[in-house]
Amino acid sequence: MVTAEAAVTIPALVLVLALCLGAVQSAVDRVRCVDGVRAGARAAARGDLPSAVHAAIAARSPAGARIGVQIGASSARVTVATTARAPAVSPRRSMTA
Length: 97
What we know:
By secondary structure, the protein is an alpha+beta fold.
């Protein structure tokens, strides 16, 4: 009897663990996107060159993130977008900061 119950319980626990790990990875990627945007905005506010702003963003953003930088006369707009890496059992999600 216990063997049949364990055969059902263990895969369910593995699935829940995979979903939890995917959620943690998504949260980490979101924080890294925000860190990249902050670093880029700070570099743009200091008057750094656009290449230096881009490098500051790339250093703190998740791998493969799409980076956008628009520097105007009195303002700067920095965006970092990525697709959350999650286990195959959960849908892929986009995030932008």
